[in-house]
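Design a sequence for this backbone.
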């Protein structure tokens, strides 16, 4: 029971303090100015694309350095000019337009599940 026994008082001073400022309060303009007046070190860092209205995809990506470091040649192989002329001649012999030839070759390849013809095969026709 709390009411039984002698009553004593504790006269030691109690100090009540405010909470330490959080990160958002430290970035406040008043807090920064107060730190400048007191001579404290202030570090300012500009974030990438901070304060701009540009999307992250519109600027260079972080993978740009990786792509620049690549030494491998990533160009596609060129198709010989003879292939172009061979296809054009075969198309004209059958009196087909480019769109008709594309539709016919695509539908044939899809129906037979064949890969697209190669240049070496085109010379045999």
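Sequence:
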């Amino acid at each position: 029971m709390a009411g039984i026994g002698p009553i004593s008082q504790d006269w030691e001073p109690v100090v009540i303090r405010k909470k330490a400022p959080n990160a958002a309060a430290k970035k406040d303009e008043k807090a920064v100015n107060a730190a400048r007046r007191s001579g404290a070190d202030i570090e300012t860092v500009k974030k990438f694309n901070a304060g701009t209205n540009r999307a992250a995809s519109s600027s260079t990506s972080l993978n740009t350095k990786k792509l620049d470091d690549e030494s491998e040649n990533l160009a596609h192989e060129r198709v010989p000019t003879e292939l172009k002329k061979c296809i054009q001649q075969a198309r004209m012999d059958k009196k087909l337009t480019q769109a008709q030839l594309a539709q016919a070759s695509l539908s044939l390849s899809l129906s037979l599940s064949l890969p697209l013809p190669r240049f070496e095969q085109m010379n045999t026709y």
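The helical segments are 23-26, 29-38, 64-69, 81-93, 98-112, 119-122.
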